[in-house]
């Protein structure tokens, strides 16, 4: 396949083929994600996993632009979606357009993602009508951690489940090309997937979603501050890095590194 997957290509996967998505924040990780995934999401989770912030609330436009550019440089096939950070879109459609256009122009991403249900529908329609593809995000929306009261499973009651279903459907009707479903009971993930017209991308929302996404540092074992139940560890890079760093420190203290093969001198080739 030549060229990048477009938001329209992702939209057309509904009922055809699963959408494979991972987050990416840097060029080398983007290269790995690009080889195997359909969507590279430059998530505002970057603030927590790479910058040590306590939540996603402190993430800025500048951070998203820097990481979005790095991911664009490291990819050629994946559809790049960049998260709109907290405070960059909630005031209204004009503010959202101004910041989304800046994200697209400066990073070269194909789409933006924003959090929220029916109250964001007008903004989604406004952006889509003006050339900015939008991915929605409902259920657990981490930018609302303070009003949600924590990172709990959402949609457990019938009333809440119905509300989240309407939120997802309203975003699809407003023109979102896909909707992330975060931390919902699997039965609700299935129900929303059956009822809305665009792909659902699940994270902790069950196996019946149209696609899946994980935070790459979580699934590779690089970020271990919290370990949500929905994260499957596909590698243990943190443990591997720890062992490598410890071995290096021991060898430097013992003057065992550098060895003869690592030094320059008489008769040593470059
Ligand atoms: O910021 C992020 O990584 C996300 C995904 C987990 C959906 O929004
Ligand atoms: Na996010």
Automatic annotation (TrEMBL):
This is 3-methyl-2-oxobutanoate hydroxymethyltransferase. The keyword Plastid does not apply. Its EC number is 2.1.2.11. The keyword Cell inner membrane does not apply. Homodecamer; pentamer of dimers. Pfam families: Pantoate_transf (PF02548). The active site is at 182 (proton acceptor). Its main location: cytoplasm. Its cofactor is Mg(2+).
């Amino acid at each position: 396949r030549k060229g990048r997957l477009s938001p329209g290509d992702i939209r057309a996967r509904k009922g055809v083929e699963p959408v494979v998505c991972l987050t990416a924040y840097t060029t080398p990780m983007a290269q790995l994600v690009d080889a195997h995934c359909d969507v590279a999401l430059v998530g505002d989770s970057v603030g927590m996993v790479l910058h040590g912030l306590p939540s996603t609330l402190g993430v800025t436009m500048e951070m998203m632009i820097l990481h979005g550019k790095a991911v664009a440089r490291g990819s050629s096939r994946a559809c790049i979606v960049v998260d709109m950070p907290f405070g960059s879109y909630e005031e209204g459609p004009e503010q959202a357009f101004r910041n989304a256009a800046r994200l697209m122009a400066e990073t070269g991403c194909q789409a933006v993602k924003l959090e929220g249900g029916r109250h964001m529908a007008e903004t989604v329609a406004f952006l889509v009508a003006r050339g900015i593809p939008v991915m929605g995000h409902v259920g657990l929306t981490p930018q609302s951690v303070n009003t949600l009261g924590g990172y709990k499973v959402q949609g457990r009651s019938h009333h809440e489940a119905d509300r989240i279903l309407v939120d997802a459907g309203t975003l699809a009707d407003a023109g979102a090309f896909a909707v992330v479903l975060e931390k919902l009971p699997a039965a609700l993930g299935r129900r929303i997937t059956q009822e809305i017209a665009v792909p659902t991308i699940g994270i902790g929302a069950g196996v019946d979603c149209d696609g899946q996404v994980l935070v790459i540092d979580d699934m590779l074992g690089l970020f271990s501050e919290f370990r949500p139940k929905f994260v499957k560890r596909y590698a243990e890079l943190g443990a591997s890095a720890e062992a490598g760093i410890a071995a290096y420190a021991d060898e430097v203290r013992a003057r065992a590194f550098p060895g003869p093969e690592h030094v320059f001198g008489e008769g040593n080739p470059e």
